[in-house]
Sequence to fold (183 residues):
Amino acid sequence: MIDERVKLFKILGDKSRLKIVSTLIKEPMYVELLSERLGLNPSTVSFHLKKLEHVGLVRSEKDQYYVNYHIDKSKLDFNLLHEINTVAAVEKTEEQREQLYKKKIIDTFYVDGKIESMPVQRKKKIVILEKIAEQFEVDRSYTEKEVNEIIIPIHDDFCLVRREFIMEKLFTRENGIYTKLSR
Fold:
């Protein structure tokens, strides 16, 4: 449903297509008549009608020598506020699912505030590295010794964690100075 609305909004994001829709709402028409009324080339009108037809907003019907185009008004019969709230609800659900996933990973790899082993899977490793990085302030400079002192109580292999911080672009390192980046 959401994907259909997104496609519909993208299609209606063109001035010529909006003119065509506005004209067809009043009455069904064929390409040449639309072309004449809107001051567009027939090939341009045909191009836009195909796009509108693709999302189901317009349907064609053969009438003797002409193909008339009609608007499917049911496609335009929706409450925009409701659509926006639906998208927000879906995003919130996805965000909650992501938070539960991260919590599960942290609960699995953190034992009594310490990481026993670093996950092999990259996505899980990033979750753990982000959790460790919470111990650092954004945009503050740390010496290598300060970084080690913060990491050691959490994970014994502080060299691995420092290296992963840099590789995953959680930190920068220049002349032995580490800086946590904002994400």
